[in-house]
Amino acid sequence: MHEYLTTKQIVDFVLNEAEKHKAKKVLEVQLVIGKLTVLGVEQVKFYYELLTKETVMENSKLTIEEEEPLVKCENCGYNGGINLKCEDVYHFFIPVLSCPKCGKPVKIVKGKEVLVKSIRVAV
Questions:
Q1: How many alpha carbons lie under 13 Å from residue 115 in its C-beta half-sphere?
Q2: Whole-angstrom distance, CA of residue 60 vs CA of residue 26
Q3: How many domains is the chain built from?
Q4: pLDDT in tens for each of the 123 residues of the chain?
Q5: Would you call 118 exposed, middle or buried from its count of C-beta atoms within 10 A (0-12, 13-18, 19+)?
Q6: How would you class 49 by CB atoms within 10 Å of its CB: exposed for 0-12, middle for 13-18, buried for 19 or more?
Q7: Structural domain boundaries, residue 77
Q8: How far apart are CA 92 and CA 99, in angstroms?
Q9: Angle subtended by helix axes 2-20 and 41-52, to nearest 10
Q10: Which residue, of 80, 90, 99, 123, has the fewest CB within 10 Å?
Q11: How far apart are the first and last CA of the chain?
Q12: In this structure, is the dihedral angle defined by the CA atoms of residues 85, 87, 88 and 94, taken in order, positive or negative?
């Protein structure tokens, strides 16, 4: 269900920006979604289409780029990507994050954000 709420926030943000710039039509929206957000890309696309009906965003192209997680290990100094292991506990997705070098806990540097990368409009 968080896909709906997140997509609603994205659509509201884009509509607000379109209004600020007096856009007649939103042609394209580019998103970057970090894999640690645990958002289903297909669900985001579905809700985007649903929420943009009868707005200046209707029929706009939605492009989604998935961002791999990057981490930093305070223990051994590792900086880089990780193999994302997931454990299903009662049907919930729980990412297990540990350093690929030493196995200790890591700090997330990238991959947990949703970013509106660009909005293309007709004015």
A1: 12
A2: 6
A3: 1
A4: 689 999 999 999 999 999 999 999 999 999 999 998 889 999 999 999 999 999 999 999 999 999 999 999 999 999 999 876 655 544 455 566 889 999 999 999 999 999 999 999 999
A5: exposed
A6: middle
A7: 2-122
A8: 23
A9: 50
A10: 90
A11: 34
A12: negative
Listing DSSP states for 51-91 in one string gives: HHTTSTTTT-EEEEEEE--EEE-TTT--EEE---EEEEETT
Residue type, 68: E
CATH code of 15's domain: 3.30.2320.80
What is the SS3 assignment for 26? strand
Instruction: At 18, list the tokens.
Output: 């379109």
User: How many whole angstroms separate alpha carbon 9 and alpha carbon 13?
Assistant: 6
